[in-house]
Amino acid sequence: MRKIHVIGIGAGDPDQLTLQAVKALRSTDVFFILDKGEVKSDLVQLRRDILDAHMPEGGYRLVEARDPDRDRTAGGPAYSPAVGDWRSARAAIYERLIAEELGEDESGAFLVWGDPALYDSTLGILEEILDRGAVAFSYEVIPGISSVSALVARHRTGLNRVARPVQITTGRRLAEGFPDGVDDVVVMLDAHQTFRRYTDEDIDIYWGAYIGTPDEILVSGPLAEVAPFIEDVRAEARERKGWIMDTYLLRRNPGL
Ligand SMILES: C[S@@+](CC[C@H](N)C(=O)[O-])C[C@H]1O[C@@H](n2cnc3c(N)ncnc32)[C@H](O)[C@@H]1O
Ligand 1, residues 173, 188, 210: which to mutate, most atoms within 8 A of Cβ? Predict the structure, then answer.
């Protein structure tokens, strides 16, 4: 039966690849690389660099496909259907890749940014393909270092405080209000710098962009003091590179 490896590759630093991931790479026949177009080509390049570094002798096939574009204008109630459509379009592409490019007894791999279990659609897409029933395969997930782990490591802080909870959420959710019952909140997928809504509260921020890459930027401090600086730095970096990936931890009542 066909076998798929879903390999977490870390969030930007090639050294974040685990030994388990390297073993999985070495037992893969075909790598599927989804290209998001010109803008994020750095992210595709990291995957190529990983293969060059760990499989210099070659012996594998690389199959590239264009990732479908998502309707990013859809907001409010249209947001979830837009994400669903995009996911189904991806499922159709992945299904074709697995059925047409992978022999019956071969193994293929998707190299997933960070950890495949965190805000990534690959596992859901593979389940969707299996549900459709047109192609059969087994799959294994190899965990990766997420941008959340990388962020707090670079800031040399913990995610949670002693015996207290931590929540990971999105910018979209944070815009609805600071989560109840939790003072430590990690925010991902925030295109709108939603932290700006909370500058009148006693909050520390630990912010990072392009973490683990040569472009890495880290800023931390009391939110009210550093928020304008983060806005400026973020805008400048986004303009220069054409895209940005940033994550941050908000720590409410930091003195407690
Ligand atoms: C689609 S999610 C993928 C998350 C990934 N699976 C992980 O484990 O980090 C993309 C979001 O992850 C965060 N992210 C990923 N890589 C990052 C990096 N190197 N630096 C800062 N944030 C990053 C950003 O919040 C970005 O919007």
Answer: 188
Question: Which residue among 9, 13, 47, 113 has the greatest number of ligand 1 atoms within 8 angstroms of its CB, and so is best to mutate?
Answer: 113
Name the CATH architecture for the domain at 148-252.
2-Layer Sandwich (3.30)
Per-residue pLDDT, 80: 77
- SS3 string of the chain? CEEEEEEECECCCHHHCCHHHHHHHHCCCEEEEEECCHHHHHHHHHHHHHHHHHCCCCCCEEEEEECCCCCCCCCHHHHHHHHHHHHHHHHHHHHHHHHHHCCCCCEEEEEECECCCCCCCHHHHHHHHHHHCCCCEEEEEECCCCHHHHHHHHHCCCCCCCCCCCEEEEHHHHCCCCCCCCCEEEEECCCCCHHHHHCCCCEEEEEEECCCCCCCEEEEEEHHHHHHHHHHHHHHHHHHHCCCCEEEEEEECCCC
Residue nearest to atom 25 of ligand 1 (CA): 188
Answering whether pTM is above 0.90, one says yes
Atom of ligand 1 lying closest to residue 148 CA: 9
Structural domain boundaries of the chain?
A: 2-145, 148-252
Is domain 2-145 classified as CATH 3.40.50.300? no
Q: Check residue 40 and give its pLDDT.
A: 61
Averages of pLDDT over runs of 10 residues in the chain (256 residues) are 96 94 96 73 82 89 84 73 82 94 96 96 95 96 98 97 97 97 97 97 98 96 98 97 95 92
